[in-house]
Amino acid sequence: MTRTWFITGTSSGFGRHLTEQLLARGDRVAATARRPQSLDDLAARHGDRLWRARLDVTDTAALRKVVDRAFADLGRIDVIVSNAGYGLFGAAEELSDAQIDAQIATNLTASIQLARATTPHLRRQGGGRYLQIASVGGQVAFPAMSLYHATKWGIEGFWESAAAELAPFGIGVTVVEPGVSRTNFAAGGSVLGASLPEYAEGPSGQLRGVLSGELPPLPAPGDPAKMAAAIIACADEDRAPFRLTLGSDAYALARAALRERLRALEDGRDLAHSTDADDVTAPAPAGH
């Protein structure tokens, strides 16, 4: 059965891979990008199965207009993919106010506003699927990436809550958590804060060396085409998996982080319970 998808950030990376694979299998795609002409080759090959619109996702008014126009032109849209985003690297002190605002606006606020804009349409049509391209960086954190992690942890929290709100309307949600993949994210898709000498010998300076090519690149085990295929397959499932971890590095990092978080929580069990009011029944000892 032919399905219709709405995808942001389709000029490169996962957005481009998803668009190519979906069109190749016969689906329709409403593709948005700041440079929709980057999809001219796909338009020539697939004709009116590719609907295009220029969109800067940080322009909320424009986003709403594009969403409304896509539903008006295409009728039912089965899957919404929030994919547009980029990385902001550098120690928190090295980042400018404008860089911080732009990172949050693109990676976090725009995803929330896309959900808000599309939800009324999905409700009226009786359901659909929402795919949030997030990152394993929403489960783990590394130095010199604090603002990037803030947006990815933020969107995880948003969907933890909003997914339960949307479930009664037949709208399924999947948060996709890729590891490092062989896209242009680290090079062409990233922004660096100003370099402060105080951080030159630390993680921020090392990351700059990697991005500039002065140091060896980070391992990138993920194949973006395979990841895109897995994302499409998950949307074809009857029940939406809430999280989709992609890449061996993502699995190992998330597993280790969650184990450590659980260990730390359990270590603080007695202290947590000791702060209850006196009339609260004491819990059974651990292990019972």
Topology:
Blueprint: E1 4-7, H1 13-24, E2 28-33, H2 40-46, E3 50-54, H3 60-74, E4 79-82, E5 87-89, H4 97-125, E6 128-133, H5 146-166, E7 171-178, E8 190-192, H6 203-212, H7 224-236, E9 243-246, H8 248-267, H9 269-274
Helix pairs in contact: 1-7, 3-4, 4-5
Describe this structure in words.
- Belongs to the short-chain dehydrogenases/reductases (SDR) family.
- This is SDR family oxidoreductase.
- Keywords: Oxidoreductase.
- By secondary structure, this protein is α/β, with parallel strands linked by helices.
- The protein has one domain (4-251): Rossmann fold (3-Layer(aba) Sandwich), CATH 3.40.50.
- It contains nine helices and nine strands.
- A seven-stranded parallel β-sheet has the order 3-2-1-4-6-7-9, with helices on both faces.
- α1 crosses α7, α3 runs parallel beside α4 and α4 packs parallel to α5 (146-166).
- The longest helix has 29 residues, at 97-125.
- The chain is globular and about 65 Å long.
- The protein starts with a strand and ends in a 14-residue tail after the last helix.
Give the CA-based shape.
globular
Q: Tally the structural domains.
A: 1
- What is the CA-CA span between the terminal residues? 51 Å
Q: Report the structural category.
A: alpha/beta
> Quick one: CATH superfamily?
NAD(P)-binding Rossmann-like Domain
Radius of gyration: 21 Å
